[in-house]
């Protein structure tokens, strides 16, 4: 399989549950896309207020801290458009209201591509199946189809906010492991990915050999993609949603 090649500039919207989810799963891809001239936008459904290990930090302060960390990490990867929706960490469910809020962002950003988390539980990966992650993936898929493209869904978005319907051409599901059918070669962006992850100090400062962990994971993806030795990659399942 050949590495992902540059294309005409497009708009990519990443929708995930928590700050740092993008940087762990797609940080190398984001850095690659922004370097190629694509517009990349983040949508964080929660502020990650249930994360961290310091009991002296209030949950309100943790939410503010994680927004700051995510904003700094995004800047490292070339992203300055972030939407924080403020849903409660650890209590994310697929509701009409969550679908509406994601639909709002899709209609505002009008992306060609949406990248999100898997809506299905991976029985081989406890960490990859965090319930907030699967809820984020399912709610985003519902927002892509049918909500965002249907002018009669969430009619207040059009009537009160002037947000017209928008059809997303493709959805990329991240963290697919053996289920991936497309890979982005992230070798040249690898160090920026690690730097972005280190910006999430409240979540990663305690991790031994963060770079080594990310290198091993990236190498496993590159091996699956048959990119050759000393390459790293991030894998996706790509869906045509036109």
TrEMBL record:
Keywords: Zinc
Entry-linked InterPro entries: GlcNAc_PI_deacetylase-related (IPR003737), LmbE-like_dom_sf (IPR024078)
Record-linked PANTHER family: LMBE FAMILY PROTEIN (PTHR12993:SF28), N-ACETYLGLUCOSAMINYL-PHOSPHATIDYLINOSITOL DE-N-ACETYLASE-RELATED (PTHR12993)
Protein name: PIG-L family deacetylase
UniProt source species: Actinomycetospora straminea
